[in-house]
Amino acid sequence: MHPAVKRTHELLLLLCMLGLQACAQQPAAKEPSLLAPNAIDGIALLPPPPAPGTHEDAIDVAAVKQAQLTRTPEEETAARAEVELFIDDFQPAIGPWFVESRLPKTWAFFRQVMRESKDITARPKDFWKRPRPYVSDPSIKPFKPEQSYAYPSGHSAGGTEYAILLAELIPERKAEILRTGRGIGWHRVVAGVHHPSDVLAGRVLGQRVAQELLASPAVQQKLAELRAEIAAARTQATSP
C-alpha cells in the first residue's frame, strides 16, 4: 500500500475510534422531571410549628413521651423497619409479589418521586429549624437520632405521597395502602424523632405533592405503564 494511502487509512481509523469513545462518554439521557421547579412552596403552604416554650409545644413533646410509653411491639417493629423509608414498606398491605425484581419500572418511578420531592420537605425544615423532640426533652430516647430538623416530617410526607400514588396503581388495596401510609407518620412519633404536629404537617405536604403529580398528563401516562407492569407481575406471581 502506498505510504500516503496508508496514512489516510490510519487517520480515518483514529477518527472513528475517537468518535466511538466520545459517544461512549456521553451521559445517559435524563428522565424528564415529574415536578416543575418550585411547584410547591412548603413554607407558604404550612403554618409555623408550635413556638418553643409555649403550652402547645409542651403538649406536643408530652405526646411523644406518651407514645413511647404506650407503644405496642408491632408499632416498635414497624418504626424500626421504616427508618429507611421506601415503597417496599407497603408490601404487607399489597402482597408478597410486590418486589423490585418483578417491578423494576415501578421502583424506578418511585425513586424519582423520592428524589424530586426531597427538597420540598427540606426547605421548610431548614426555614423553621424546629428541634427534634429528644433535643427539647432528653428523657425521650429516639430509636435513631436524625441530623435534620423536625418540622415537617419527611417520612410522613413521603409515606403519604407513596400511599396516594400506590392506591391509584392498586385501587383494590386502597384501604390497606392508605392505612400503611398513615402509620408511617405515626411510627415516627413512636420512634421519638417527631412530634405529632410534625407528622400532620408532613401529611399535608405529601398530599399536596401527590395532587401535583396526579395532575400531570405525563405522570398519568407513566402510571398507565406501571399498571401494566403491576398486572403482569401479579399474574406471574399467582400462576401455577
How would you explain this protein's 3D organization?
With 240 residues, the protein is mainly α. It has a domain at 87-240: Phosphatidic acid phosphatase type 2/haloperoxidase (Vanadium-containing Chloroperoxidase, domain 1, Up-down Bundle). Helix content is 66%, strand content 0%. The chain is built from eleven helices and no strands. It has helices at residues 3-24, 42-45, 55-70, 73-81, 91-94, 104-128, 133-136, 154-169, 174-190, 196-214, 217-238. Helix 8 (154-169) packs antiparallel against helix 9 and helix 8 (154-169) runs parallel beside helix 10. The protein starts with a helix and ends with a helix. The model has no long low-confidence stretch (mean pLDDT 90).
Helical fraction equals 55-70%
What is the CA–CA distance across the termini? 67 Å
| Mass-distribution shape | globular
Query: Low-confidence parts, pLDDT < 50 over ≥5 residues?
Result: none
Percent range for β-strand residues: under 5%
With helices defined by DSSP (H or I, 4 residues minimum), what is the helix count? 11
What class would the helix/strand composition place it in?
mainly alpha
CATH topology of the domain at 87-240: Vanadium-containing Chloroperoxidase, domain 1
Mean pLDDT: 90
| Shape-level CATH architecture of the domain at 87-240 | Up-down Bundle
How many strands appear in the DSSP assignment? 0
Q: What kind of oligomer do you see?
A: single chain
Return the string of H and E elements: HHHHHHHHHHH
Can you tell me the CATH superfamily of the domain at 87-240? Answer: Phosphatidic acid phosphatase type 2/haloperoxidase
